[in-house]
Amino acid sequence: MREVFQQELAEVQSGLIAISKDVHSAITRATAAFTSSDVSLADEVIGDDLKIDEKTIHVDDLGVEILLMQSPVARDLRFIVATMRMTAALERMGDLAAHVAQLARMRYPDRSAPTDLHDHFQRVGELDVAQADRVMRLLETEDSDLIDEIIAADDAVDQIHKEVLQFLTKHEQAGDAPVAQIVDATLANRYFERFSDHAVSIARRMRYMQEGTLDEIEPGE
Amino acid sequence: MREVFQQELAEVQSGLIAISKDVHSAITRATAAFTSSDVSLADEVIGDDLKIDEKTIHVDDLGVEILLMQSPVARDLRFIVATMRMTAALERMGDLAAHVAQLARMRYPDRSAPTDLHDHFQRVGELDVAQADRVMRLLETEDSDLIDEIIAADDAVDQIHKEVLQFLTKHEQAGDAPVAQIVDATLANRYFERFSDHAVSIARRMRYMQEGTLDEIEPGE
């Protein structure tokens, strides 16, 4: 019984790691598709999102089965509870990567964002990829330093989010900027920022699992 | 023991209902603040959001305690699992109401959205208020007809979301439209649309609780 239990917990963990790898791949390709208007890459990301959704449902089901059959306590219980929130966050990160890819897809062959913002989106995309990489390593190693790193790294994402908003709203009038570009840039800015928020959410849940406390309320953004 | 258990389950349910009432109040006031640029109403909604966050953490903690002390099975287990996803959805609905209020707050005394879109936002706000009302009643009555109503009502919200996006992107150039208005309208449009998505997510979780199956993957949007 005990052995089956440990095996099931390991299966949940490897499921989470597998999803985080898919999410890392999705945001890497979505950022490339968005900044280079690569439509076939965007299609790939959009198509692959379903696999992430299916995997999260599978891990959730495993978690419910463990609750039912094993009645876990202490850290094991917190692991399952944390897992259910982490799958939701990973699933949303996959959605957001697909949303970024959709923006690249929809406006093709035009660029998805004003040229002046190209560097901003390149940078925030790289920061998101780095967050996804940390999440992957956190789920593998449970190294608590990575929790702090993920929370700290969110500030740089928020900073770029603010800069893009300021850039977009600094002009009194849009003049000859295509409105579609402003709309797309506003949405992309939001998606890139939310992606990192979910990484922070996963980091907090990991801390909850390790320490038993959820010391801070999730950020409102 | 059994009596304590039933009392704890009832406490979780009444906690969910209380949060849904707060969310209903928040989206009602946020919509009014946004469409009438009422800054003090907006401040109220933003200030009250912390209460929603605190209540969701309290209900989650109760859920974990029940898992630990009672090892629920069957419908009771599904109720607790569903609760943890429903609190997350309710918390996000509160955040989105606060985001709408923040848009009203930031651009004061200017209107937050182009005048041509005023009716659209009025209507989608009303649809969201109606969704919050259905969620409230669903949590109280567990009436499965409300599940279908919530899922069906999301289509009208998506339709307005599409119309606003089309309106915003139909002009080749923005001309004399203030860019800040386009940015705000884009964000408001997204917030109103997401609010209803979370209502659908709650409806699906309620069906999972009742029937034990989660027949559809959560919508990507």
Explained architecture:
The structure is a homodimer of 221-residue chains. The first copy, chain A, is mainly alpha-helical and 221 residues long. Chain A has a single domain (2-211), classed as Methane Monooxygenase Hydroxylase, Chain G, domain 1 (Up-down Bundle), CATH 1.20.58.220. Chain A contains six helices and no strands. The model of chain A has no long low-confidence stretch (mean pLDDT 91). Chains A and B meet through helix 2, helix 3, helix 5 and helix 6 of A and helix 2, helix 3, helix 5 and helix 6 of B. Chains A, B: Plays a role in the regulation of phosphate uptake. Chains A, B: One of its GO terms (biological process) is negative regulation of phosphate metabolic process. Chains A, B: Residues 20-103, 122-205 form the PhoU domain. Chains A, B: Keywords: Cytoplasm, Phosphate transport, Transport.
The CATH architecture of chain A can be given as Up-down Bundle
Mind summarizing the main beta sheet of chain A? Answer: none
Oligomeric grouping of the chains: homodimer
Shape of chain A: elongated
Q: Secondary-structure element sequence of chain A?
A: HHHHHH
